[in-house]
Amino acid sequence: MNKNNISRFLSLVLRHDPSKIGITLDNQGWIAVDTLLTQLKEHDKEISFDTLKNVVETNDKQRFAFNEDQTKIRANQGHSITVDLKYRPLEPPELLYHGTVAKFVDGIKEKGLLKMNRHHVHLSESLETAIKVGARRGKPIILTVQATAMYKAGYQFYKSENQVWLTDVVPTNYIEFKR
């Protein structure tokens, strides 16, 4: 498996379907590295610890993290399974961004940004990151979120280890639609 395929597969098992390789994450999303490597091998996806470490360190979105002694690993955010990542509420910057594509804009204008099958809506401090996220599915449309106004209205925000801002919902009145 190349590094990109390893990253995708890790995203699948650490964020959405750990049972695919017969693992169980703890309530904070962690799995022992030895257990993960053993189960990957048993499912014809064998990789070394050095390869795993390289994927974690070089992933452009920093999707994964080791604990301090590198004996456990987890996904930083984006789970569709129940995990408690122990995020603490933080005050966000004035503006955050979300990248999407045209086919989703009407729904967002009607209902706002919803977390759908994830735990949170993902937002970025960086316009460039939002453009890259939106471009994964076509021509990006960037939404500007009035995060400080939301925060002052009582909405909670969290920041993941890989600098992604998270919230439960973004109502339409806090979104500026720009093409």
TrEMBL record:
<dbReference type="InterPro" id="IPR022928">
    <property type="entry name" value="RNA_2'-PTrans_KptA"/>
</dbReference>
<dbReference type="InterPro" id="IPR042081">
    <property type="entry name" value="RNA_2'-PTrans_C"/>
</dbReference>
<comment type="similarity">
    <text>Belongs to the KptA/TPT1 family.</text>
</comment>
<dbReference type="GO" id="GO:0000215">
    <property type="term" value="F:tRNA 2'-phosphotransferase activity"/>
</dbReference>
<dbReference type="GO" id="GO:0003950">
    <property type="term" value="F:NAD+ poly-ADP-ribosyltransferase activity"/>
</dbReference>
<dbReference type="InterPro" id="IPR002745">
    <property type="entry name" value="Ptrans_KptA/Tpt1"/>
</dbReference>
<protein>
    <recommendedName>
        <fullName>Probable RNA 2'-phosphotransferase</fullName>
        <ecNumber>2.7.1.-</ecNumber>
    </recommendedName>
</protein>
<dbReference type="Pfam" id="PF01885">
    <property type="entry name" value="PTS_2-RNA"/>
</dbReference>
<keyword id="KW-0808">Transferase</keyword>
<keyword id="KW-0520">NAD</keyword>
<dbReference type="InterPro" id="IPR042080">
    <property type="entry name" value="RNA_2'-PTrans_N"/>
</dbReference>
<dbReference type="GO" id="GO:0006388">
    <property type="term" value="P:tRNA splicing, via endonucleolytic cleavage and ligation"/>
</dbReference>
<comment type="function">
    <text>Removes the 2'-phosphate from RNA via an intermediate in which the phosphate is ADP-ribosylated by NAD followed by a presumed transesterification to release the RNA and generate ADP-ribose 1''-2''-cyclic phosphate (APPR&gt;P). May function as an ADP-ribosylase.</text>
</comment>
